[in-house]
Amino acid sequence: MLTNVDDLGCGVAPLCDHCSMFTRRSIRLMEIFGIRVGVDGTWFLMLFLMIFLLSGSFRSTLHSSDTIAYLTTVATVLLFFASLILHELSHALVARRQGIEVQRIELFLFGGLTHMSRDSRTPGEEFKIAVAGPLATLGFVLVCAGLDLAIVGSHRLLEAIYLSGSITITPVLLSLSWLLLINVLILVFNLVPAFPLDGGRIARAIVWKRTGEKQRGTRAAAKSGEAFALVLAGLGIWLLLSSHGLVGLWLIGLAFLLGQSARGALVQSKVSERLDNLMISDIMDSQPVAIPAATPVSQALEEFFHRHTAVWLPVVDADGHLLGIARLERVQAAHDGGDGWLTVDAVLESDDAATLRVGADRPLVDALSSESLGRLGAVMAVDGDGVLRGVVTADQVRRALASALGSATR
Fold first, then answer.
1. Cα 234 from chain centroid?
2. Which residues of 76-89 are buried (b: 16+ CB within 10 A; e: fewer)?
3. Taking phi first (over 0 means left), then psi (-120 to 50 degrees means alpha), and beta for anything else, what does residue 287 get?
4. Sign of the C-alpha dihedral, residues 349, 322, 370, 287?
5. I want to staple 13 with a disulfide (CB 3.0 to 4.6 A). Which of 78, 111, 144, 205 is the partner?
6. So what's the pLDDT on residue 137?
7. In terms of Cα–Cα distance, which of 293, 286, 351, 299 is closest to 321?
8. Are 36 and 28 a contacting pair, CB within 8 Å?
9. CA distances (Å), 83 to each of 78, 133, 136, 137, 302, in order?
């Protein structure tokens, strides 16, 4: 299933997603272990098509009334989607054990998506999360096989699975055998080492572990994903020309989705690689305006805030250590209240000092998660001793990201 696609057959949905390629509105179906499970509009299309396409086949196989065949079809299709939810839920629960917040699970036309708050940080995390889905599908296959075995006995198991021989086909046996075969197809499909399929995630984890480079693992899996998407597209076109239009169109759509996801992963890998080599010190303003803590409020207003038209400014001690920030409204309020003689450190917002700073020698990606960047639109760059060395603004970060993205897509 699409994993981060972090993670789609003829009615199969062998993709899963751990992060998510895109965001869509969905209808809430249920909540399992606190995880919202929803479907989007395309899922209803898939539900209708599967019931429509299977009902005729089930009717001829069962040699029963239309009502029994229809009810068997509906129950089978719903159990099929339950198996997809089980697959996604396994990804989600393992991700939770790794400390990753799982936002929701969604089913759509091409399978399932597990939306997670972040990507894996270690190859071990990546492997555990990616392998969980196929293991759940394997477990579902074994349960179906076990129930078939209990119904017909070991000597007729293959006949039950393929619905061949002189075996009496009941609605339960038909449903179990179809679910077993379709989940085997999903399992095999998902284990193809092509991003964003689970097999691609597993392959990425292996390369990442062996090389110590996540981006190298991503590139290898994503290139395989692009190649696999071309194969699927070719198969879809062949089926389309062979009068299997619906399946052919579905495979072409699936190929497009896989190819886009793989391409996106390659671009993201290149961007991350460039950002990993870009330091805070490379883009920061190395001569920031800072107010000495001993400056009187009235002087700070005139010489700093009014001159530089600033709404806040960093405050440093005599040795240049970052103490916090001073906001214009607090400084102005102190001045208007007749306390212009107070020094700036008396109106300092020092409680936020820890959230304001980032090491000047750290990669730029460290600034992206800074609370200060979102709250103030800037983050203070300091050295190992806490001395203010520069200021990085949100505009500077955006320009750096745009430059990295532009280079990655060329």
1. 28
2. bbeebbebbbbbbb
3. beta
4. positive
5. 111
6. 95
7. 293
8. yes
9. 9, 10, 8, 7, 68
Q: Which residues contact 48 (CB under 8 A, 6 or more apart)?
A: none
| Closest of 17, 176, 146 to residue 83, by C-alpha | 176
Q: How far apart are CA 330 and CA 386, in angstroms?
A: 24
Amino acid 386 reads G
Q: What pLDDT is recorded for position 365?
A: 72
Residue 91's pLDDT is 93
Q: What is the pLDDT of residue 4?
A: 42
> What angle do the packed helices 123-152 and 171-190 form, to 10 degrees?
160
User: What domains, with CATH codes, occur in the chain?
Assistant: 27-276 (no CATH), 282-409 (3.10.580.10)
Low-confidence ranges of the chain (pLDDT < 70): 1-25, 154-157, 159-167, 273, 275-276, 350-353, 369, 404-410
* Token code pair at residue 21: 């390629």
Residue 333 has a CB neighbour count (10 Å cut-off) of 13
Whole-angstrom Cα distance, residue 384 to residue 320?
12
Please give the angle made by the CA atoms of 256, 400 and 207, to the nearest 5 degrees. 50
Round to whole Å and give the CA distance between 410 and 406.
Answer: 6
Q: Are 191 and 176 in contact (CB under 8 A)?
A: no
What residue type is 169 in one-letter code? I
Listed residue (230, 227, 228, 207) closest to 217, CA to CA: 207
Torsion, Cα 193 196 198 201, to 10 degrees, reads 70
Instruction: Answer yes or no: are the C-beta atoms of 264 and 246 closer than 8 Å.
Output: no
- State the pLDDT at residue 9: 29
